[in-house]
Amino acid sequence: MIGRLIGKVSEDDDGTLVVDVQGVGYEVVCPLGTLGRADRDDDGRVTFYVHTHVREDALALFGFASEADRLAFRTLIGVSNVGPKSAITVLSALPAPELAAAIARKELGQLTAIPGIGKKTAERLLLELKDKLPVSTAPARPSTAGTLPRDLPPEARRDNAGMLSRALVNMGYRVTEADRAVEKLGERVNEATLPELLREALAVLAK
Q1: Domain shared by 107 and 124, yes or no
Q2: What are phi and psi of 3, to 5 degrees?
Q3: Are residues 109 and 123 in the same domain?
Q4: At 14, which CATH number?
Q5: Domain range holding 188?
Q6: Which of 1, 20, 101, 175 is exposed most, by the fewest CB atoms within 10 A?
Q7: Residues 65 and 37 sit within 8 Å (Cβ to Cβ)
Q8: pLDDT tens digits, residue range 111-135?
């Protein structure tokens, strides 16, 4: 099993994240924001904590910026009816510290706001994840990561749309589906944060 990868990151034509480790490219699915949070050395190599998911018909690698994120993923897929795709969606909306805090505070509404997570699943998460995720004692810090104001140049706006599209593809959606969701969001792509855009894009794709 692969537990960690350290390498330079590139992308395939379909937006899949590829980690190049000494000439071998590993396709890795990551929650939104992982690249921004992951450790990077002076040579530009990124460290991913990896969960190797094996099924009869497939083998997939899921990458995370920290061991806490990987633990949260493994805990999530241990919950009934929560598969890897749903777990990635949850962690894209709520990284491990935020998820742990939401569980500790029993914030049902914050969980049901995640596309694809209904009330019954959210209640199951509150019940089954209780005391299983470490809650950070560090004070919350406001973040402006992923925010694009209206007056940014067109290149920056395209980058935001591209990151959203790639995140959707990494979660298992087809390129055409991702592009359709981005187009539906219109001007929101220019002004919202990436986590907000992801939630709205997933809502569009769920219709």
Answers
A1: yes
A2: -110, -20
A3: yes
A4: 2.40.50.140
A5: 154-206
A6: 1
A7: yes
A8: 988 878 889 999 999 999 988 887 7
- Backbone φ, ψ for residue 127 (5° rounding): -75, -50
Question: Residue 204, exposed/middle/buried by CB under 10 A (0-12, 13-18, 19+)?
Answer: middle
- How sure is the predictor about 170, in pLDDT bands with cuts at 50, 70 and 90? low
Listed residue (145, 131, 149) closest to 195, CA to CA: 145
Asked, for residue 134, whether it belongs to a domain, the answer is no
- Final residue of a structural domain among 64, 99, 116: 64
Domain end marker among 18, 36, 64: 64
Q: pLDDT tens digits for 172-191?
A: 677 788 888 888 888 888 87
Strand partners, 64: 49
From residue 189, give the alpha-carbon distance in Å to each of 17, 86, 110, 171, 193. 21, 23, 22, 19, 8
CATH code where residue 105 lies: 1.10.150.20
Residue 106 has pLDDT above 60, yes or no: yes
Share of the chain above pLDDT 90, in %: 34
What is residue 81's predicted lDDT score, i.e. its pLDDT?
86
* Residue that the structure tokens 């040579």 belong to: 43
Query: Which residues have a Cβ under 8 Å from the Cβ of 101 and sit 6 or more positions away?
Result: 135, 136
**Whole-structure pTM value:** 0.67
Q: Find residue 4's DSSP bridge partners.
A: 49
Residue 86: enclosing H or E segment and its boundaries?
A: helix 84-93
Q: Does one domain contain both 35 and 72?
A: no
